[in-house]
């Protein structure tokens, strides 16, 4: 493989500490294969530029651009992908880490297959390695668009599990999906609706998330992964069947566990789920969860003293890890 066939593309904003650890991880793998790293800084006000300079001093194949103004995450994702000129671009979130064998695994696929997109499995890192969140899908090419949407679409919301081909980047309709929360997902399926090309799935978990803090989107989980997720998937081109779309919507809520028992309890303890949320989003519950509607209602009306949410937020990482083991 030539040195111009794969790049790491990192969008970032005000997360210098995460970016530091991210670049340490990426440089350790990039150096062996002379892989370029592109960073698009969305007008950070912290020490992001200093962190980048530190790694540029030891690895010159890092290109860094800082936006004058915050252009939003979707446009920043597009920008960093288009900063690269390689045959494939791996979109990497700054709070995710690649397994030591990740690059070699992906390079083998690029050499042998040249798919439109590579999707890798990922999950939380445990004692025995990364516990991949996709459990039952075998590795290989997926050529049926509806099968891809139904079986893997839910997982393709995860930035760092997506490796884009140059053709997809150049022909993808990014502008259509600005401010949707799911640009990285929608651009791919929009492209595949127009171009029948294979997507290769890597079943071996190659990405793990290193962030145990309260996600920035958690307060809006029902708006983003309830209403917006439903509406975005259902708005995909008509070449995708209603059955595949509905399966994709449901599987995300179930397999991500966001709207399972544990996920709902976490939302409640954070103070992000109450009766007003129930009333606004109840019509989506059957489409995003396997839990009965009465459970949503019961959890919504149970009072939560404000101090409980305060304590849970303050100890989120420790309590969240405990819940991962117990629930």
UniProtKB/TrEMBL annotation:
Molecular function in Gene Ontology: hexosyltransferase activity
SUPFAM superfamilies: Nucleotide-diphospho-sugar transferases
Gene3D superfamilies documented for this protein: Spore Coat Polysaccharide Biosynthesis Protein SpsA, Chain A
Transmembrane regions listed in the UniProt entry: 294-312
Domain annotation Glycosyltransferase 2-like: ranges: 9-164
Sorted UniProt keywords: Membrane, Transmembrane, Transmembrane helix
Pfam families: Glycos_transf_2
Keyword Isomerase: no
Sections of the chain in a coiled coil: none
Name of the featured protein: Glycosyltransferase 2-like domain-containing protein
